[in-house]
Amino acid sequence: MKKTIFLGLFLALNIQAVELRMATTTSTDNTGLLDGLQPLYKQETGNTLKWVAVGTGAALKMGEDCNADVLFVHSPKAEKEFIKKGYGVDRTPVMYNDFVIIADKSLAPKFKGKNLEESLKLIRDEKLTFISRGDKSGTDNKEKSLWKSIGKVPEKESWYQQSGQGMLASIKIAEEKKGVILTDRGTYIKYEFNEKGKPNLIIVNEGDDRLKNFYSVIAVNPKHCKNVNYTEAKKFINWLTNDDTLSFISGFKLLYKPLFIVDAKTRKD
Q1: Residues 174 and 85 in one domain
Q2: Domain match, 84 and 110 both
Q3: CATH code, domain carrying 163
Q4: Of 16-20, 38-42, 128-132, 254-258, which gets the smallest average pLDDT?
Q5: What's the pLDDT tens digit per position in 63-95?
Q6: How does residue 7 score in pLDDT terms, banded at 50, 70 and 90?
Q7: Does residue 65 sit in the same domain as residue 37?
Q8: Of 10, 156, 237, 238, whose CB has the highest number of CB atoms within 10 Å?
Q9: pLDDT for the residue numbered 17
Q10: For the packed helices 243-250 and 33-45, what is the interaxial angle rounded to 10 degrees?
């Protein structure tokens, strides 16, 4: 009798368990954050989190095409447009870090004492090899907005090279070319960790308010996509922004450095 009851409970639990499809940015994947969150999510909900890590632009397109239940991305302007068009709902802030400009050690002295605009003009005027993601990711959107702030995006210049790849892979290309790149701090710390604390690319510009990098989670709109699991997507949003999960994100570190700062309770945008 006990075995029958146990089997019934086991089957009931497994029937209720679902696979939640998430489209996300490469930085949440590259840093290892999702690898840390996944077992916690499964342990606490019984569900499996399956994600595809691409640029934010591609992640939003997956949501638009009904190929994801939930999105975890970092390009506020594009996210708000996504919501406005009716593709997503329940956009909720989660965390932030910041963008930094990193460059080969040999180039670092050129940037000493320069602010953000002066650093960008230095890259442009001296034609330093600059690696762009070129993939409509959150990082790519930010980078292009920065170039526009001093004129225009130098897409036709030979020193401006587009990788079309994720953040960590693009950093390695910049390393090979002894060049310059914009990256989120979390992925840079992961790169630094992979290089055992002795990276060839180092931070040459940071701290400008325009370099803040905000992450939000969005449910795909069930009115737009009849096949999405909105119920579980909403539960995931609540789970991701509860105190215990935010505490885990806050404590997620490499080389004793936090990769993200939680702001789900304070940011209103």
Answers
A1: no
A2: no
A3: 3.40.190.10
A4: 16-20
A5: 999 999 999 999 999 999 999 999 999 999 999
A6: very low
A7: yes
A8: 237
A9: 80
A10: 160
Answering whether pTM is above 0.90, one says no
Nearest C-alpha neighbor of 216 from the set 88, 101, 41, 100: 88
Give me the pLDDT at residue 8, please: 43
Query: Pick from 196, 211, 226: which residue ends a domain?
Result: 211
107 and 75 within one domain: no
Alpha-carbon span 111 to 90, nearest angstrom: 41
